[in-house]
Amino acid sequence: MDLLWRFLLGGAVVSAFALLGDVVRPRRLAGIFGGAPSVALATLALTIGTSGVTFAALEARSMVLSSLAFVLYVCFARRLLATARWSPVLVSLAGLAVWAVAALAAGLLLQHLTT
Amino acid sequence: MIPSLDFSGLRQAHWYQFAARFLIGGAVTLCTGLIAKHWGALVGGLFLSFPAIFGATATLIERSETEKKKKAGISCRARGRKAAALDAAGALLGGWGMLCFALAVWLALGRYPPALTLTLAGILWLIVSASLWWVRRHRA
Predict the structure, then answer these.
(1) Neighbour tally for B110: CB within 10 Å
(2) ipTM of the complex as predicted
(3) Residue B119 pLDDT exceeds 80
(4) Quick one: which of A68, A78, B2, B57 has the fewest CB in 10 Å?
(5) Same domain, yes or no: A39 and A72
(6) What is the mean pLDDT of residues B113-137?
(7) How far B73 CA lies from chain A's nearest CA (Å)?
(8) Interface test with A, best of B98, B117, B120 (most A CBs within 10 A)
(9) Is A111 found in the same domain as A72?
């Protein structure tokens, strides 16, 4: 039941931010909703209820570094899309690899700093 | 340009594009919870910044812009991709806002009520992202 609730809440929050991004103009302002902390809001709200504030605060600490991975992902995507040679599907999939490597490096750095 | 709302893009979109975003959002949130449960808060927290919306939204924008051009008798994908790049430029500003959101939650959680912390951090994200857009627009 907890998993279903997590799925529904996550889907609803992500969709709500995405819808705002669809209707807000100008386009660059609408784009900020692509960087909305939608997954974080849904996850942290549920984590606070199930695992407590200390656990959620530790998750937020990791998110500080992984947000930089997101920034790197979007920089990569923007540069490739601006050339108009690559489709958004391909760019976002390739970008996920960039995000994963950067987030992994962030995780390793954090682990090194905390042990 | 004054910020406004334009619903015309929604009419061109297909229901399955919205369903896909709901499924991706739900799946990412579900997986983030499971990862945190098995590998702890340090690893789980990394996934809180997972780019859940960007790919689907950029695809939607490209299709919408390409359709518009097609209706005008022009077959050109480049315009759609440039519009998606503009969306990415906005997402970059949102990403800096996301960093401020995470910092605020990390520092305030435990000191202030959780609901208040998440609400104010969300407002901080919006203020930082929108301010960066405003500054960029006026410097350009």
Answers:
(1) 13
(2) 0.95
(3) yes
(4) B2
(5) no
(6) 97
(7) 20
(8) B98
(9) yes
